[in-house]
Amino acid sequence: MLLPDVLIAGAGIGGLTAALSLHQAGLSALVVDAAERLRPIGVGINLLPHAVRELTELGLGEELAAIGIPTAKFLHFDRFGNRIWGEPRGLALGYRWPQYSVHRGELQTLLLDNVRARLGEDAVRPGLAVEDFTDSGGVQVRLRRREDGEPVVITAGALVGADGINSAVRARLHPGEGAPLCNGVRMWRGVAETAPFLDGRTQVVAGRNTVAKFVAYPISKRLDEQGRALVNWVAEVRVPDDARTETADWNRLGRLDDVLPHFADWRFGWLDVPALITESPEILEYPMVDRDPLRFWGRGRVNLLGDAAHPMYPIGSNGGSQAIIDARVLAYELARADDLATGLAGYEAARRETTNAIVLACRDMPADRVLHTVAERAPHGFDRIEDVLSADELAAIDGSYLQTTGIDAERLNARPSWSALSTTSATTPESNPMNTFTTSHGRDDRHA
């Protein structure tokens, strides 16, 4: 097998998007993943317009539209179902691209199928866990085959760790960092089929994270076309004795008896929360965790992407969206650089401070402070939110979500495509609005 320009550790949303983006840029990629089988697991995920734009420019727009719900509204309620605040989302907010709510497993399958179709069936190799690497001329990556424990060595031009919050690549770049940090909020997640609520295109948040909060949104285009809804829900409860060093295992099964008592009487008329929880075939449980922002991500020909680089709280629908943007900027910077190390440095310079700021903004949670204020001033509910919050306090919620998503509609609509590049003429995104990658670099000189 020819040596890849980039070995990507992790076949999640970020890693697979990176493989597609590198291929579009004329660079070769190989994806490895520690899981022995890549299965369409997980629950719901929101893709913000700036991530949908990137997937659309990879030619995935129609496939994405076939599985996702175009989110039209985002609404906050108190724990009694009284409306506090709301705003339009996606196209309704002025973006040229929609926001989608989609099943994470369906999205990952879409990306995986496209990687194998475009790069070849052998472009994704499951069952290989990264153990160590050395960067000398090319990057020698030492892996362990999960099936039989045999060692495997792959040499590539560069290594990108897209292997999640418990990244093996990050652990070797930043030894001694320790476990992810928990903020004391316990999360349960599930999906359940039900009748559509509100307009069938709305993401709702009810309650407050200082006690209990509930998030719900539909994620299935197929069921929507049948007049039904597959609703993703997230239940957040502050648990004082949660350890800050608890292991984050996204596949840990939760128990109905642990989550249901916190929401047993949350019936809003338009949404029956305890019924939604009870009717879920499976419940997942994990702590709300992140990591402290890093002063640097990588060195030389090794770097990080997505949750491996900047794990953040699930505020503002950022996790998957920021990983997709990482992947696109990575390919853009590598394609226009004279060598891989320079390209990786350019990628980190373009993304690290931006994503570190989002990590800290998600910790700040200003919208949740407003929700807490509502609960304190109107503990038994209210008739008019104007009697509870001032106009400035309501406006603070608008600003908090712009702070965590990091880009507004006008800026995104005006930004030239990251698919626009011709290294032969040293163009920049500002000078070349075309939507195709071209590169003067062949396979061999990418290892120089």
Kindly describe this structure.
The chain is α/β, with parallel strands linked by helices. Helix content is 31%, strand content 25%. It is built from 13 helices and 20 strands. Strands 6-5-14-15-16-13-17 form a seven-stranded mixed sheet. A five-stranded parallel sheet has the order 8-2-1-12-18. Strand 14 and strand 15 form a beta hairpin. Helix 2 packs across helix 9 and helix 9 packs antiparallel against helix 10.
How are the SSEs ordered, and which strands pair?
Layout: E1 6-9, H1 13-24, E2 29-33, E3 44-47, H2 49-57, H3 61-67, E4 69-71, E5 73-77, E6 83-88, E7 99-103, H4 104-119, E8 124-126, E9 128-136, E10 138-145, E11 151-156, E12 158-161, H5 168-173, E13 181-194, E14 202-208, E15 212-218, H6 221-225, E16 229-238, H7 256-259, H8 273-278, E17 284-290, E18 302-304, H9 319-336, H10 340-364, H11 366-377, H12 391-405, H13 409-414, E19 421-422, E20 437-438
Parallel strand pairs: 1-2, 1-12, 2-8, 5-14, 12-18, 19-20
Antiparallel strand pairs: 3-7, 4-7, 5-6, 9-10, 10-11, 13-16, 13-17, 14-15, 15-16
Helix pairs in contact: 1-4, 1-9, 2-9, 9-10, 10-12
Instruction: Tell me what portion of residues adopts beta-strand conformation.
Output: 25-35%
Could you tell me how far the N terminus lies from the C terminus, measured between alpha carbons in angstroms? Answer: 19 Å
Spatial extent as radius of gyration: 22 Å
Q: How many separate helices?
A: 13
- Helicity, as a percent range: 25-40%
Secondary structure category:
alpha/beta
Order of the strands making up the biggest sheet? 6-5-14-15-16-13-17
Total DSSP E strands: 20
Unreliable runs = 422-448
Average pLDDT reading: 88
The outline comes out as globular
Largest sheet: 7 strands, mixed
